[in-house]
Amino acid sequence: PAGVAVDPAGNVYVADTDNNAIRKVAATDVVTTLAGQAGVSGSMDGTGSAASFNGPAGIVADAAGNLYVSDTLNHTIRMVTPAGVVTTIAGSADLSGAVDATGSAARFFGPQGLALDASGNLFVADTNNSTIRKIVTTTGVVSTVAGRAGIAGSTDGANSQAQFRYPSGVAVDTAGNLFVADTDNHTLRQIASSGAVSTLAGLAGSSGSADGTGTSARFDFPTGLAVSSAGDVYVADASNNAIRLCVVPMAPTITAQPQSQTVTAGQDVTISVTSTGKPPPTYQWFFGGVMINGATSSTFTLNSVQTTSAGNYTVTVTNSSGTVTSSQAALTINPAGGGSSGGGGSSGDGGGGGAPSWWCCGLLVLLAAVRRTFRR
């Protein structure tokens, strides 16, 4: 057996390679043959034992429980429904090649590892072509993502210029980045969503078992891959008989920007930012574009602020993969005590600086009485 997949219900499916069969391990541990016949090789589409495979290796399950299988020695990609119905979705049995086309007009050469992205696109480690291919599962359209068919190498760069050497494993993260077990180069490669190919770990042509960072690490014919929810990659390092973990660097991203605030002079103020990144990022706060000495955490506190602290604050978030700067957080500070007082008022006059209101009312009453007297 060479490939394993798990469906949303927790059933495990096995590409039982030398039995030319697809097996199912239920949650109860009961094992059944879903499609193909043990010991019978072929390329027939059909249901259950009426279908046949020839050295199936890669297998992956979609959200509906359908299986995609790289039928390696048939040079085809097959689909198996939960009911065991088998169809060929790309390639033509016994016809190897490197043709980008639709369905049976496409050609593969010894495909192995498979991976599905969130949009349902299927990625194929087309091993003997030394390329990574893509199948749009809704249409059957096949294209080459990276590598140059028939040209083995280790060049990084744009997808059409990059080279691989017999890759056998592929995996995809939630951001759409592809990871490739470049088997005969003894390296772990990455194909960014932009299409650029880079070497994450290992050194082309140098096998070994050393743990380390980047080119200081060594693999020995890595094959299978899996990506964790955190974006890290597990590698089946075949000839080392080991499972390796590669923590993939991730540029910092700000997930919660610092917020503007309005406070009164004398109060304490805390401004904060939330971010992600690997390795964990560092921070530096700025006031009006000028670096604040010692302000190097995700939160920045001002004690007993004064009006001179009013203005715009930003923070830069940095790790070895990049730097990002936050949006401005405006700090507005009102003077303590709220407003100014009038002058000249006596006690009880309300602070207005003039005659008290009761005195004014009495004067008005007196003036009204005088007017009535003169009218008489």
Notable traits:
6-stranded mixed sheet; 30 strands; 376 residues; 5-stranded antiparallel sheet; disordered C terminus; mainly beta; elongated
Q: Describe the largest sheet.
A: 6 strands, mixed
Radius of gyration: 35 Å
Helical element count? 1
Structural class computed from helices and strand pairing: mainly beta
- Indicate the mean pLDDT: 91
Stretches where pLDDT is under 50 for at least 5 consecutive residues are 339-367, 372-376
Question: How is this structure best summarized?
Answer:
The chain is built from 1 helix and 30 strands. By secondary structure, it is mainly beta. The strands form 8 sheets. Strands 22, 25, 26, 28, 29 and 30 form a 6-stranded mixed sheet that branches. A 5-stranded antiparallel sheet has the order 5-9-8-7-6, with no helix packed on it.
Describe this structure in words.
By secondary structure, the chain is mainly β. 5% of the residues lie in helices and 41% in strands. The longest helix has 19 residues, at 357-375. Residues 339-367 and 372-376 have low confidence and may be disordered.
Secondary-structure topology with pairs:
Elements (H helix, E strand, L loop, with lengths): L2 E4 L5 E5 L4 E5 L5 E6 L9 E2 L8 E6 L5 E5 L4 E5 L4 E6 L20 E6 L4 E6 L4 E6 L4 E7 L21 E4 L5 E5 L4 E5 L5 E5 L20 E6 L5 E5 L4 E5 L3 E7 L4 E4 L4 E4 L1 E5 L3 E6 L2 E2 L7 E4 L8 E9 L2 E4 L3 E6 L22 H19 L1
Parallel strand pairs: 22-30
Antiparallel strand pairs: 1-2, 2-3, 3-4, 5-9, 6-7, 7-8, 8-9, 10-11, 11-12, 12-13, 14-15, 15-16, 16-17, 18-19, 19-20, 21-24, 23-27, 25-26, 25-28, 28-29, 28-30
